[in-house]
Amino acid sequence: MLTKAMIEQMAVNDSALANGKKLADKGCFANLKKTEDSTVYWGECAGSGKNPYRTSVDMSDEKKLPVCRCSCPSRQFPCKHGLALMLLIERGETFEVDALPEEIAEKRAKAEERETKKAEKAAKPKKQTASSIKAAEKKTAKQLEGLEMARKMTDELMTSGLATLSGTSIQKFRDLATELYNYGLPGPQLIMNRIAESMSEIQFRGERGESADAKMLYSQTLRYLIKLNTIIKKGCAFLSKKIEERTFDDNNDILFEELGGIWKLEELEKIQSFRDNARLVELSFEVVEDRVKDEFQYKSHCIDMDTKEICANISMVPSKVWSKIKIPDSCFEMLLIPRVYKYPGTSRVRWDSFTTRKLTDEDRLALISCAEESFESAVKKFKNYIKNTLHEKSMMMLLPVASIGMAGVNLLIEDAAGTRIRVADAPLESGTTTNAYCTTSFIENAKIIPVDMKNVGAVFGKMFYDEQLGEIRFHIHSLITKEYVLRLM
């Protein structure tokens, strides 16, 4: 079923969507037709040329987004004519039933043939030739060499102390980190750049006399150093095993991404890391600018209504093209996803297409039931999670809440057992900032909601450890009641 959310998702940018709406509103289409099974729609749209553009929308594959085709010269897919035709379909415009045009049938057949070949290629085991094994072995050996170089750098830093990393030595550290990219290790390179960024910030804070912030940054930098050391040790064992067993395609390990590997959908298909017919509800949408990676990150935090797992769909856009492309949209309805792919060892997911429907009272009750049993069980789960030095020192969670209220100057959440957790803003990673499209502080927004609410149901957000105060805190992203979901992000 075609929805407005789906059409907006498909639009290349806001301008294309706006132009598509204008064409649909002006009645520029004629000869509107569709197949008897209502899977293919087509029509003619008046353009600037002598002949009208022939536009079609193919929705025969329910697991994928509609395929738009048009005879116009635009290089945008879908073009404004395709968007306009989809809007007419969504609005319930009248289409006359007719036989599928031969032109569309031929293109459809070719597309099906390509998909069949692609599926056969994916299903067929990749043949390991002597030359491909030798190339993979050479690449892996170079990565091991790079990890050894990184080990020497971290050992020297841990021996001399973080305080020695300042001024020109920070730039030298950055230059050495850049070398890791040449060894095929963008993951460790990123962590080293975060260390350098943190130390630069510490130096700046120290000069301004902001010792409390500097202390927090020192703790963060130490965590980066510990994580890097773990990646080096485990990465060496992981890569050495590959060379020893001569198995270079088996990447079903969190270290694959930590070393800088990038998953492809066909690879996730191969290891069957996916789930069909998923029902997800988005509970927050973060937009983060990462200066270290020079990119913007769009993080859609969702909960799987069937597995009760929290996941995140993350889109990364280079800063230099950020202003030129369409920003991913947030969704306030139930996401119905034909196939959702899961990245091994992480909560990250990805999907190609989806439809939506309105959330019902039953959905919200089911959403509340997805929460952890209690604060006690949630804290235990959180502590076990952060024991892994490869994991972030924070965790997205859905907590059961009996009430939210103020105790002096502190905002607290409380469960049915009377256990309380203080609400606060979670610190950002070094070199990152939350951009203007995001709410950055629940405390600031607390004044616009009834903070003494009883029987809230559940709160969604980020549990983290406040190292300065030595206690676990919670950054609220959304509130869930039987009547509504109040999103703060």
From TrEMBL:
Keywords: Metal-binding, Zinc, Zinc-finger
InterPro entries: Znf_SWIM
Gene Ontology MF term list: zinc ion binding
Domain SWIM-type span(s) in chain numbering: 53-90
Biased composition (Basic and acidic residues): 110-123
Region (Disordered): 110-137
Protein name listed in UniProt: Zinc finger SWIM domain protein
